[in-house]
Design brief:
Largest interface: A-C, 57 and 45 residues
Strand content of chain C: 5-15%
Structural class of chain C: alpha+beta
CATH superfamily of the largest domain in chain A: NADH-ubiquinone oxidoreductase 51kDa subunit
Largest sheet of chain C: 4 strands, mixed
Strand order of the largest sheet of chain A: 8-7-11-9-10
Order of helices and strands of chain C: HHHHEHHEEEH
Number of helices of chain A: 21
Distance between the termini of chain A: 41 Å
CATH topology of the largest domain in chain A: Rossmann fold
Strand order of the largest sheet of chain C: 2-1-3-4
Structural class of chain A: alpha/beta
Oligomer: heterotrimer
Helix content of chain A: 40-55%
Distance between the termini of chain C: 27 Å
Strand content of chain A: 5-15%
Chains: A alpha/beta (about 450), B alpha+beta (about 325), C alpha+beta (about 170)
Number of domains of chain C: 2
CATH class of the largest domain in chain C: Alpha Beta
Number of domains of chain A: 3
Radius of gyration of chain A: 23 Å
CATH topology of the largest domain in chain C: Glutaredoxin
Number of helices of chain C: 7
C-alpha cells in the first residue's frame, strides 16, 4: 500500500465535519504555520517540497507563490481553482465532497504564507451541491476560530468565500477564471501581466488547484523533506488519479508518484484490470488534452523501460511516443473502443468550450469537429486525415491560452498512433455507420495482419 | 528608451511601446498586419492573432527566445529585443493559418459587400491567403438583427475583433451592444432588438475592419472606387468636424472619419456630421484625399502628382536598393 | 405583466453575496445572482429578468446578456419542469452514454434539445460533468444521477414526474 497524504481518513464516518476531521489531526498545520513559522519560511518549505501544480500544468507551486508581488500596496488574493472540467478528471470533486476541511485548512495556511486576507474558491457551477458542503465546512471553521478575525489569537485574519461558475471549461484557465470571478465572460487575458502581479481586481493573486492546496497541510505537518521522500525526483508526493473508462474499478486513487502504469491498470488495489476480460487498447493518461497512447507505449516507453506514473516518465518520448501526467484523468479504452469516435467527442467538447476570443481556436476547433464527425459517420475522404493534422498544427501555439493546444494535441496524437483506424473509416463507410462498429467487430490493424 | 531590432532594422522607442508600434515606426513591409488592434481603443488587440511575430531574443538582459510566437500588438519591447516579422517562415506560416481561419466561415460575398475595396480582410487575404479553400463544411450563419436605422450589421462577415464594443464603451457612455454567446457562435448583438442610437455610434462603422458594420445611408449606392474622396470640415460642437466626403459628382454619398495609413481613425466624428450633412454647401472642402497607390480606390483618385515629391521618393528608393538605409516613407509600388 | 422581484429571503441572500466582494466590485456577484434568478423565475432568464439583475447590481443590461449567453448553465429560453442534462463526453460515451440518450429520447418521445409535450421534461446533452468514474450519468438540478442503466433512468423519470417540482441548481 502506498502512502496516503490526502485520503488516509476518507472513509472515516463524519470526516466531513470539523470535530471528526480535527480528531484525525485536522487543522494542526494552521496552528503550526501561523504560530511557529513565517510566511517566507512557508514559501521556502513549499518550494523545497517540490510540490507541482496538480491542475494539469505541473508548475512548481512554491515558485508560483514566490512570484507574488510583495511590493504592491494592494490586497493580495488566493483563488482556488475548483473549476474541474477536463474530461476524465473528477478528483477535486471527490476531495471537496469527502474532505472539505482539508481544502479549507490548506487555504488558511496558504493565505498566511501569501499575505492574503481573502481566499475565493471558484467552483464549477455544476458542482452546486458541493458549494453547500464547502459552505457548511467554512461555517464550522469560522465557529472554531480557524477563520475570521485574529485566527487562534494571532493578528492573522482571513476570510474564505465560495463562488460558483456557470458552465464553462475555459474558466479552468486561471485568467479566464479571474475574469469570471469579476462577473465577466470567461475570456482568458493576454499575458503579461501574470496574476501574481495583476490578477483579481488587478491585485496580486495566486491561483492554485484544489489538490495543490490540499497538499499544503501535509507538507507543513511532516515537513517538505519527508514530503518529497515520496515520489521520484521532481515528481514528489502523492497524486490523485481519476480512473475511468473500460476498467473494472473506476474511481479516485491516491498514488505515490512513481507507481508503474502497468500496476496501476492491472492491480486490484487500483483499476483492477480491463473490464469484461478484454484487452487494453489505448490510454489517455492525464485528461482529454494530453496525447493518447496505444497499449504498448503506455505500459513501456519507446526505449523499452517500464512507464511510471510521474511527470517525467509519462512525458518520455516527447509527443512522438510519450504523453503527460496532466490533471491525472486516466481514461482507459479496451479493444472495442473506436479511437475516431472518442476523438470526435473530445473535439466536440473543445468546440463547445472555446471562448471564441481568438481566431485560431474559435474557427479551428469547429473545423476539426466537423471533419471528425464526417469521418466517424462514414463521409470522410483520405485527404481529411492530413487536413486534420494540418489544422491542429495551425492552432497549436498560436492561441491566447492553452485551450488551443489542448484541442490540437489529442487530434495530432490519435492520428499519429492510430492512422490506420482513420483510414479504415474512410475505406469502409458502410461498416462505420453503425455507431457501435468496433464493439461488434474490434478493429484489427491490416499492417499487423500482414506482418503476422 | 529601448532599442529593438525588427527584421534586421534597429529602432529606438520609449519603454512600454509594443512591438507592432515599434515596427510601424520603422515602416514598410515588415510591419505586421493588424485586424483587431486599434491604437486609440484601450484593451484592443491580441485576439485575431494575425500580427504574430517571433521573438528570437527576449532582451539584452535575458537573451532567451520566447517559446511561442507572440501577438506584436500587445507585447511590449525590451531593450535588446530581436524580432522576426516578415523574415521568419514560421511567422508567415502562422499568418497564413490565421487568414485561413478567418476566411473559413466568411461568406466571401465581396461582390455585394459595401466594404469591398477598403476591406482589411480583403487586403490580408490578398497578401497572405490561399487561392482555394480547404473548408467544405457549411459556413456559419446567424439570425439577422436590426440594430438601428443608421448602421447595418452583417454578422456573417464579422471577425470578432471587438473594436466596435470598445468604441461603444470608450466613446459613449451607454453601450447597448456587445459580444454574445461563445466560441464560434459568438456574435455582435444588442440581444433585444434595441437600436444602437447615440451621438458617436457611427464610429463603429469606421473601426470595423470588414463589412460587418456598414453605413446604411451608403448601402448599395456605389462601389467605393467609383467615388471621389475629398477632405472637408465643418464647424461642429460635438466633434472636430474633420471628415472625408465620398462624392460622386456633387452628390455626397457617404461621410466618414479620416484614417491614417494603418486604417485607424485619427479623430472620431459625431453622427450628425456623418449622417445628416449630405449637401456640399454644408462643408468646406480642403482638397483631394490622399489614397495609397496600391489601393483599389486610387483607380479614380484625383490627387495631382507632385513631381518634385515623386523625384525625391524615387531617389530615396534608389538609396534603399543600394542598402543605405530604409526611407522613412517607402512606397513599394513606385519603382515597379 | 408579472412583477419581477426577488423574494425577501432571496434579496437578503443577494445582499450577503454582494458583500463577499470588495466595495465597488459588486459585478462579481453576477454569476451567483443569475443562478438565483434562474431558480426563482421559472428556470430560465428572460430579458426582463436579466434587466432586473442588472438593476440590482448597478450594471448595464448588455453586461448581463453578454455573461448569461456565455455560460452553458443559464437557459435563455423556457425549459420544461425538469431539465435533464446527460453527459456525452468521451469517458461517459465509453460506458454507454449514447444508449442512455437513446433510451431517454424514446421514453420521452422527444429529441435532444426538445421539451416533452406535457412540458414536464427538457432533454439536453452536455459536456463533461466530472463524473467519469461513475459513468454514464446525468444531472437534474443540483443532483447527479450516476452509474445509470435504462432501469435506473425509468425509475428516476417516474420519481420526477410524481414529485412534479421544478428542477433547480440551487435546491
Amino acid at each position: 500500500m502506498g502512502k496516503k497524504f490526502l485520503l488516509e481518513h476518507v472513509n472515516v464516518p463524519g470526516i466531513e465535519t470539523l470535530p471528526v476531521y480535527q480528531s484525525k489531526g485536522g487543522y494542526a498545520s494552521v496552528e503550526k504555520a501561523i504560530k511557529t513559522m513565517t510566511p517566507e519560511q512557508l514559501i521556502e518549505e513549499v518550494k523545497f517540497s517540490d510540490l507541482r501544480g496538480r491542475g494539469g500544468a505541473g508548475f512548481p507551486t512554491g515558485l508560483k507563490w514566490s512570484f507574488m508581488d510583495k511590493k504592491s500596496e494592494k490586497p493580495r488574493y488566493l483563488v482556488v481553482n475548483a473549476d474541474e472540467s477536463e474530461p476524465g478528471t473528477f478528483k477535486d470533486r471527490y476531495l471537496m465532497e469527502k474532505l472539505p476541511h482539508i481544502l479549507i485548512e490548506g487555504m488558511i495556511v496558504s493565505c498566511f504564507a501569501l499575505g492574503s486576507k481573502t481566499g475565493y474558491i471558484y467552483i464549477r457551477g455544476e458542482y452546486m451541491y458541493i458549494v453547500r458542503i464547502l459552505e457548511k465546512a467554512i461555517d464550522e471553521a469560522y465557529k472554531a476560530g480557524f477563520l475570521g478575525k485574529n485566527i487562534l489569537g494571532t493578528d492573522f485574519s482571513c476570510d474564505i468565500y465560495v463562488h460558483p461558475g456557470a458552465g464553462a471549461y475555459i474558466c479552468g484557465e486561471e485568467t479566464a477564471l479571474l475574469e469570471s470571478l469579476e462577473g465577466k465572460r470567461g475570456n482568458p487575458r493576454l499575458k503579461p501581466p501574470f496574476p501574481a502581479i495583476a490578477g483579481l481586481y488587478a491585485c496580486p493573486t495566486v491561483v492554485n488547484n484544489v489538490e495543490s492546496i490540499a497538499a499544503i497541510p501535509t507538507i507543513v505537518n511532516i515537513t517538505a523533506d519527508k514530503y518529497n521522500d515520496v515520489g521520484i525526483g521532481k515528481s514528489a508526493g502523492t497524486k490523485l488519479i481519476s480512473a475511468s473508462g473500460h476498467i473494472n474499478k473506476p474511481g479516485i486513487y491516491e498514488i505515490e508518484l512513481g507507481l508503474p502504469v502497468e500496476e496501476f491498470i492491472y492491480s486490484d488495489e487500483y483499476c483492477g484490470g480491463i473490464w469484461k476480460g478484454r484487452k487494453l487498447k489505448a490510454v489517455v493518461a492525464g485528461g482529454s488534452s494530453v496525447p493518447i497512447l496505444p497499449a504498448n507505449l503506455i505500459l513501456k516507453t519507446a526505449k523499452g523501460e517500464s512507464r511510471l506514473m510521474t511527470y517525467e516518465s509519462l512525458a518520455d518520448g516527447g509527443f512522438v511516443s510519450g504523453t503527460m501526467l496532466g490533471s491525472g484523468g486516466f481514461i482507459v479504452m479496451d479493444e472495442t473502443a473506436c479511437i475516431v469516435r472518442n476523438l470526435w467527442t473530445f473535439a466536440r467538447f473543445y468546440h463547445h468550450e472555446s471562448c471564441g476570443q481568438c481566431s485560431p481556436c474559435r474557427e479551428g476547433t469547429g473545423w476539426m469537429e466537423k471533419v471528425l464527425h464526417r469521418i466517424e459517420h462514414g463521409h470522410g475522404h483520405m485527404e481529411d486525415i492530413d487536413l486534420l493534422v494540418s489544422v491542429a498544427k495551425k492552432i497549436e501555439g498560436n492561441t491566447i491560452c492553452p485551450l488551443g493546444d489542448a484541442a490540437a494535441w489529442p487530434v495530432a496524437s490519435a492520428i499519429r498512433h492510430f492512422r490506420e483506424e482513420f483510414e479504415y473509416h474512410v475505406k469502409y463507410p458502410e461498416k462505420v455507420k453503425d455507431p457501435k462498429h468496433f464493439e461488434k467487430e474490434p478493429f484489427v490493424s491490416e499492417s499487423l495482419l500482414m506482418n503476422a | 528608451m529601448a532599442k529593438v531590432t525588427i527584421d534586421g532594422i534597429e529602432v529606438e522607442v520609449p519603454d512600454g511601446t509594443t512591438i507592432l508600434n515599434a515596427a510601424r515606426k520603422i515602416g514598410g513591409e515588415l510591419v505586421p498586419p493588424a485586424m483587431c488592434y486599434y491604437t486609440s481603443l484601450k484593451d484592443s488587440g491580441g485576439k485575431c492573432r494575425v500580427c504574430l511575430v517571433k521573438v528570437a531574443q527576449g532582451s539584452t538582459k535575458d537573451p532567451r527566445p520566447m517559446p511561442k510566437l507572440v501577438a506584436s500588438c500587445r507585447t511590449p519591447v525590451m531593450d535588446g529585443m530581436v524580432v522576426q516579422s516578415k523574415s521568419s517562415a514560421e511567422v508567415l506560416e502562422a499568418r497564413k493559418a490565421v487568414v485561413e481561419f478567418l476566411l473559413i466561415n466568411h461568406p466571401l460575398d465581396c461582390p455585394i459587400c459595401d466594404q469591398a475595396g477598403e476591406c482589411d480582410l480583403q487586403n490580408l487575404a490578398y497578401e497572405h491567403g490561399a487561392a482555394a479553400t480547404r473548408y467544405e463544411e457549411d459556413r456559419r450563419t446567424f439570425e439577422k438583427i436590426d440594430i438601428g436605422d443608421k448602421i447595418k450589421l452583417h454578422m456573417t462577415r464579422c471577425i470578432l475583433c471587438y473594436r466596435c464594443t470598445f468604441v461603444a464603451d470608450q466613446l459613449t457612455n451607454d453601450r447597448v451592444h456587445g459580444v454574445l454567446s461563445r466560441g464560434d457562435k459568438s456574435e455582435i448583438s444588442t440581444y433585444i432588438h434595441k437600436a444602437v442610437d447615440n451621438d458617436f455610434s457611427g464610429n463603429m462603422i469606421d473601426v470595423c475592419p470588414v463589412g460587418a458594420l456598414t453605413d446604411k445611408t451608403f448601402r448599395f449606392k456605389s462601389r467605393v472606387w467609383f467615388t471621389n474622396p475629398v477632405d472637408a470640415h465643418r464647424n461642429c460642437t460635438k466633434c472636430s468636424g474633420k471628415v472625408i466626403l465620398w462624392k460622386k459628382g456633387d452628390d455626397i454619398l457617404r461621410v466618414s472619419a479620416r484614417k491614417d495609413k494603418y486604417g485607424e481613425v485619427t479623430e472620431y466624428i459625431c453622427n450628425e456630421c456623418r449622417f445628416e450633412h449630405k449637401t456640399v454647401s454644408d462643408w468646406t472642402t480642403e482638397g483631394p484625399r490622399h489614397v495609397e497607390h496600391n489601393s483599389v480606390i486610387s483607380q479614380n483618385h484625383y490627387e495631382r502628382t507632385d513631381l518634385l515629391k515623386l523625384k525625391k521618393e524615387i531617389e530615396r528608393q534608389i538609396e534603399f536598393e543600394k542598402g543605405a538605409h530604409l526611407p522613412p516613407e517607402p512606397s513599394p509600388k513606385l519603382h515597379e | 405583466m408579472e412583477q419581477i422581484q426577488f423574494s425577501e429571503d432571496t434579496l437578503a441572500l443577494v445582499n450577503r453575496i454582494i458583500k463577499r466582494y470588495p466595495e465597488g466590485k459588486q459585478k462579481s456577484a453576477l454569476l451567483p445572482v443569475l443562478h438565483l434568478a434562474q431558480s426563482e423565475f421559472n428556470g430560465w432568464l428572460s430579458a426582463p429578468v436579466m434587466d432586473y439583475v442588472a438593476s440590482i447590481l448597478h450594471i448595464k443590461p448588455i453586461e448581463v446578456y453578454e455573461v448569461a449567453s456565455f455560460y452553458s448553465m443559464y437557459n435563455l429560453k423556457p425549459v420544461g419542469t425538469c431539465l435533464i442534462e446527460v453527459c456525452q463526453t468521451g469517458p461517459c460515451w465509453l460506458r454507454g452514454a449514447d444508449d442512455i440518450v437513446e433510451h431517454l429520447q424514446n421514453k420521452l418521445n422527444i429529441k435532444v434539445g426538445e421539451t416533452s409535450s406535457d412540458g414536464m421534461f427538457t432533454l439536453k446533452t452536455v459536456e463533461c460533468l466530472g463524473s467519469c468514474g461513475t459513468a454514464p450519468m446525468l444531472q437534474v438540478g443540483a443532483a447527479y444521477h450516476e452509474d445509470l442503466t435504462n432501469e435506473k433512468v425509468d425509475s428516476l423519470l417516474d420519481k420526477l414526474r410524481n414529485e412534479n417540482k421544478r428542477s433547480s441548481y440551487m435546491k
